[in-house]
Amino acid sequence: MLHREKRNSLFAVLMTSCALIPGALTAQEVTLTSNDGSINIVGDFVDLVDDYYIINSALGQLRVEAGRVQCEGDACPRADVPTSDVVAVGSETIGVGLMPFLIDGFATARDGVIETQKANGAIVTSSLVGDGGFGDPIGTFSVSSTSSSDAFSGLRDETVKLGMSSRRILPAEARQLRNFGAGNMIDVNQEHVVAVDSISVVVNQSNPVDSISIENLDRIYSGGITNWSEIGGPNAPIEVFTRESGSGAASVFSERVFELSGRAISANAVEQTSSEGMASAVRENPNAIGFVASAFERGTKPLSLEGTCGLTSSPTAFNAKTEEYPLQRRLYLYNRADNVDPTTQAFIDYALSSAADELIAKSGLVSLSISTVPQDLQNGRMRAVLENAVDPFEFRLARDMLLEMFEWDRLSTTFRFASGSSRLDGKGQADLERLIDFLKTQPGGTQVSVVGFTDADGAFGSNQELSLGRAQQVANELLAAGGSDLANIELSVKGYGELSPSACNDSLEGKRINRRVEVWMRS
Fold first, then answer.
1. Cβ-count burial of 22 within 10 angstroms (0-12 exposed, 13-18 middle, 19+ buried)?
2. What is the pTM of this model?
3. How far apart are alpha carbons 321 and 502 in whole angstroms?
4. Are 478 and 382 in contact (CB under 8 A)?
5. Which of 45-49, 336-340, 359-363 has the lowest mean pLDDT?
6. Between 145 and 66, whose confidence is greater?
7. Do the Cβ atoms of 494 and 451 come closer than 8 Å?
8. CA-to-CA distance for 240 and 238, rounded, in angstroms?
9. Is pLDDT of 117 > 80?
10. CB of 317 within 8 A of CB of 258?
11. Number of helices followed by number of strands (H, E) in the chain
12. Hey, is 177 helix, strand or coil?
């Protein structure tokens, strides 16, 4: 149960009293559940006005911000859904930034073209025709680009085939969709990671600041720091821009930046309702700060992020692939279990295939394709290794690790685990398949080392054993799935415990990043 103060503050955020509205619709009972599942409000639905549900409840007539709750009941308003073979709703980052490329590539892969395309507000409908435009229809695609929350409210409607989200589905949303007959939304056949992305903290090109700590970012967005001179910039007020509630970028930003402090974005921050609007606002204002998906940086200046322990990370494609940038996120397609037709399934298969990698990169997002980096260029990481060796045993192990690192390239494929677990998630299983496809093309005698790491919780010796066990688990699954395709590979396993943190161990997110298995390679 929530502490009373926290519960009251949540009510204050969710609801404000309002006078009776003339001409209200006929009332029917609905339940509004907060996105974190902590509060249920039952009442008679009256209307939906300016993205606020209006209901008559035991507390009187209430206005509840639609982006902060899930609505259950026959009276809940449903979005107008166009009539198409494949209807996708949700995240603007995916709908505007990625789907046009994927639909075009899907048509080309089936020897087709986009014959017609119509825009109606946020909805774009494309008609695909086979045989270079002279054959039979492949299908029609309608993409409605709004926010990630709309992906899951949209999937309540059986005519919606795909939900696009730049954050993972919340437990409350998954439970609600299960109640609507949509199945288990986190099943590997319904939850699909199509790309990854970094949320870049951006400033105007004229701003001399190049990096910012998570702590200072927290204080700027919560209203504690108001002038650039307080963090080494010019003597000028900071103009803070944020995204609207319900957007995936806002959800990830708030979750990661305010994890340690528990603060929230100040009411003085100016909301932008699109990534393009955010980038434009920062470009035009020399004192601005904002955050956008990396594909929408567009003339702004991205900042590197500093952790409390001194580790610095930039929003590079490699850091996004390894999921080691603090504001990294996965981009998802979700489907119901009960309405996947052949065209929808074929499109999902295409979006997850290596054939889509080039188009994902072209969109400005980051594909799941495997890339490599020489580890002798990761100077910050090597310094962190030595700084984390606190006794002679650890120092010797750190020295051995550094000597190894200079001889190996690191692949972007990185497997992560829940605390105390050695089980791969759905993305991990997909990454395993991609890794096998990559390795079987390497020349004979190629050496691959599967290398485990942990967070800093627990004793060093136990962590080293855990890291070795996780690495062995990945190696076993790799060999079992790869079979004879990996006959050209010499495989070894190593475990270095907590020696090489990729993030600071002072937060849950930092610890999650550090619980990983890397893949190193040399010929």
1. exposed
2. 0.76
3. 13
4. no
5. 45-49
6. 145
7. yes
8. 6
9. yes
10. no
11. 16, 25
12. helix
